[in-house]
Design goal:
about 200 residues; mainly alpha; Tetracycline Repressor, domain 2; 9 helices; 2 strands; elongated
Length: about 200
């Protein structure tokens, strides 16, 4: 859901995006597994939990988890694909909410600050950090996620008139992922904004 709020005394439009939460929330078993697996991946890492953990949390047998995701690689692929779909929808909502590239970038920064507030990390960033332990299939999906993210950022910088839009997008994305990591260590979401504020002057 995309919500907009005018800030008193300024012309800045703050855009807050809540990605991956449908209304009403789905409660089927497969979605519950994905939801909790996403939470654990973002807080512990994908290698930091087992199907036993998922089953105990949701209240089902481990065999039931295997019914929906035969092996953990299938679960990893489903998680990355879901994030890709949800983030793409979020980007469309941002574009519908404002035509200003700077404000669109601000929305992304605000969303990633939310990870820090929830003591989480970007799911695909976490997967990338564990790249040696995921399958080639999952690695390709993670790469596709970041390629799509960078392409969207490139478009924002192009619209802002940057001749080196692709390079700016790469710098923005790299700084975004790194700043979330540092912000988590310090438990300070402001670090994300401070690290990226130079890009928000487009």
């Amino acid at each position: 859901m995309l919500q907009q709020k005018e800030l008193a005394g300024t012309e800045i439009l703050s855009i807050y995006i809540h990605i991956g939460k449908s209304e009403p929330e789905m409660t089927d078993t497969r979605t519950k597994i994905l939801d909790f697996a996403e939470h654990l991946t973002q807080t512990r890492g994908f290698n930091g939990f087992s199907y036993i953990d998922l089953g105990e949390e949701i209240g089902i047998k481990t065999a039931s988890v295997h019914y929906y995701f035969k092996v953990k690689d299938d679960l990893a692929a489903a998680l990355v694909e879901r994030v890709q779909i949800n983030h793409a929808a979020g980007f469309r909502e941002i574009e519908a909410g404002t035509s200003c590239p700077r404000r669109r970038l601000e929305a992304v920064v605000t969303y990633f600050q939310g990870y820090v507030k929830e003591e989480k990390f970007c799911l695909c960033g976490m997967m990338a950090a564990e790249l040696q332990s995921v399958s080639p299939r999952v690695a390709r999906l993670v790469e596709a996620y970041f390629s799509a993210f960078q392409a969207w950022l490139t478009q924002q910088f192009k619209e802002a008139g940057h001749k080196d839009a692709k390079l700016q997008a790469l710098r923005f994305l790299s700084t975004l992922e790194g700043s979330v990591l540092l912000a988590r260590l310090s438990r300070d979401p402001k670090i994300v904004h401070d690290a990226l504020k130079g890009f928000l002057k487009v």
